[in-house]
């Protein structure tokens, strides 16, 4: 296996780790998982820069399809997480508004 294939395989492995970490992400482990994701993204960026300096664009393009699929899956997972957090935030806002309204009614009834 040549250097290109090894680095592509390493990038793929890191992307798979990111994808798995996103599946495990929740409110309790948000900060450590996010730190791990940032570290993995930094590794990928360094590997990409290294590949760009060693290989021409057509060679790199021929290996990008499996990585693009993983990347799209990661984007979809991020979108799902963001949508879920927005939904939870909206529910909490509604609950808070209801509590405030009940408090106002209680004060009014006195």
Short summary:
The protein has four helices and no strands. The chain has 110 residues and is an all-alpha fold. It has one domain.
Largest sheet, in brief, is:
none
Unreliable stretches: none
Radius of gyration: 22 Å
The overall number of domains is 1
Coarse structural class: mainly alpha
Q: How many angstroms does the end-to-end distance come to?
A: 80 Å
* Relative helix content: over 70%
H/E topology pattern: HHHH
**How many DSSP helices?**
4
Q: Report the principal-axis shape.
A: rod-shaped
Q: What's the count of strands? A: 0
The averaged pLDDT comes out at 91
Strand content: under 5%
Describe the structure.
- The protein is mostly helical and 110 residues long.
- It has one domain.
- Helix content is 88%, strand content 0%.
- It is built from four helices and no strands.
- It has helices spanning 3-24, 30-54, 57-61, 65-109.
- Helix 1 (3-24) runs parallel beside helix 4 (65-109).
- It is rod-shaped.
- The N and C termini lie far apart (80 Å).
- The mean pLDDT is 91.
Structure keywords:
single chain, 110 residues, mainly alpha, 4 helices
Q: Would you spell out the secondary-structure blueprint of this structure?
A:
Blueprint (H helix, E strand, L loop, with lengths): L2 H22 L5 H25 L2 H5 L3 H45 L1
């Amino acid at each position: 296996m040549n250097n290109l294939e090894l680095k592509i395989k390493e990038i793929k492995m890191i992307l798979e780790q990111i994808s798995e970490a996103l599946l495990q992400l929740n409110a309790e482990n948000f900060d450590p998982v996010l730190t791990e994701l940032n570290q993995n993204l930094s590794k990928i960026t360094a590997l990409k820069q290294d590949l760009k300096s060693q290989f021409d664009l057509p060679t790199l393009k021929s290996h990008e399809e499996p990585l693009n699929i993983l990347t799209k899956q990661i984007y979809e997972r991020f979108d799902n997480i963001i949508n879920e957090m927005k939904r939870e935030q909206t529910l909490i806002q509604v609950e808070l508004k209801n509590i405030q309204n009940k408090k106002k009614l209680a004060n009014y009834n006195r």
